[in-house]
What does this fold into?
Amino acid sequence: MNEKEAIQKELGKRLLLGELMARNARKFPEKEALVYGETRLTYKQLNARINQIAHALLDLGIHKNDKVAILAYNCNQFLETYFALAKIGGVAVPVNFRLHPEEMTYILNQSDSKALIAGEDFLATVKDIQKDLPQVATYISIGEKLEEGMLNFEQWISGFPGDEPLILVDDDEPLFIMYTAGTTGRPKGAVITHRNEMVLWMLGASFVLTEPGLTDLWTFRALSAPPVFHLASFGFCQFMFFLGATVVLPTEVFDPAQIMRIIEQEKINAIVLIPVMSTFLLMLPDLDKYDTRSLQVWGSSGAILSVETRQQIKNFFPNVKIFDLFGQTEMSALVSGLLPSESEGRETSVGKILPFIEIRVVDDDDNDVSVGAVGEAVYRAPSVMKEYYKNPEATAESMRGGWFHGGDLVRQDEQGYIYVVDRKKDMIVSGGENIYSAEIEMVLSRHPKIMESSVIGVYDKDWGEAVKAVVVLKPGETMTQEEVIDFCKEHLASYKKPKSVNFVEALPRNALGKVLKRELREQYGKSMRY
It folds into this structure.
């Protein structure tokens, strides 16, 4: 056995993201793997391009544990770079394209990124912050536009071989650093390993395949609508590659009409959306003109899907099975899921914990609460992140007692089904009573005039905090503050109803569509606790 064969043998024993793609290229060489606009790549072609990028990175001096940042809209080059870095032991640092340039600068410096790959839409931003990035030695543009000193992505990789780089990577080494939304203070970089991800998608497959009547997932064509810098989307892509399916990326950031066209033209079988995307998709006036008979699986992640939206999905797409997925970045994306066959009567649940993941529900002193009581969810699993990058204090705090503290307030029933009550930091304390904003938001989602809402606590001299609802109405609708408060009084205890209501055209969101309550508090008044 020569050296190359010995390395390949050893790689084959390890849980590595790069090996996932190499294996698929050997198993299904001519099967379509990735579609992005006019770009169509088989597994053999995709793996060859990934290997070209890997060799090009090595030529730049990118080696094990070196960080490479990616700032771009969804495209095949984005996904290819993830896998190329994985093959050489490099670490991807995906950057949220909606961040302020100062926030981008912080992430690029804090992550020690040595190179930056950027879409041409962001070249002006990159040029502006370049002077503040002393560690970034190489800039690469995805597209024809270039700033001085930049490499063109396609020209850069041309000429490099498409064979395997054959770098021995340990599966406990970092795969990527994904920065949290930074809802309090600076964002933290969650370090996710190869093993974290590969084990997680094995668990995900074992969960999905227990759903009755769902077969031949390896033949699926899957559309990932959210941005791939986030695990809700990149994780979905990994899962589909894990199965040997075909992944389709939209060419627009989020265009409901384009999503529907892609479903029809590409005969999409599975889609993942965050709830706000589902809401906007369902608002298309000509939704029924598209042929969506191929669609079988609707994955919902990133927030709780309202009962009303769930019913609308079922009305317009009667053949789909809705999978409610719950997790967070630090858990490699997923901790629980609600199977379609188990959702009847449990529509507000996020299902049961995946195999190999342990959960406890604890109070502020880390003592277990009784079944059905509200507490913080803490986890122990092979999918828990390695650490927060260069932040030992935050790592120690989140991992105290050997359990990862996720910050979600939940309750678990006797059958093991989990219900998310709120984020711990979003709980409102008014007159000594705990009020969960998510509960009020769920009630408001049932009003026929309300498209969405966000509930926060604001300072009140008598009660400590008072409930404020920030409401977005459906197009053409009007409401008064009193109507909103009265509706809540019909469905909630009186102390939970909003004391004030503000109507806005849109809620502030991060790139995944999660509402930025921090901005609402800054606008409408923080409570005493912030």
Observations:
- The chain has three domains: 42-187, 194-424, 427-524.
- The chain has a mean pLDDT of 92.
- The longest helix spans residues 43-60.
- Residues 427-524 form a domain with the GMP Synthetase; Chain A, domain 3 fold (CATH 3.30.300.30).
